[in-house]
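Format notes (please read before filing issues)

Several people have asked whether sequences and structure tokens are stored in separate files. They are not. Every record keeps both together, in the order shown below: the sequence lines, then the token lines. Line labels are part of the format and must not be stripped during preprocessing.
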Amino acid sequence: MLTNYFYLVNNSLAEVNNFVKRAKKKTLPRKARF
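Then the structure lines:
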């Protein structure tokens, strides 16, 4: 169960990282959703 939780956290972290990278590449203030 602990492994599953760790995997979930890791996954969301990777997703956030991807989003930040994309946001930095093409900064579109209009389409930016927070």
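For reference, the curators noted about this record: The mean pLDDT is 82. Residues 25 and 34 are 17 Å apart (CA to CA).
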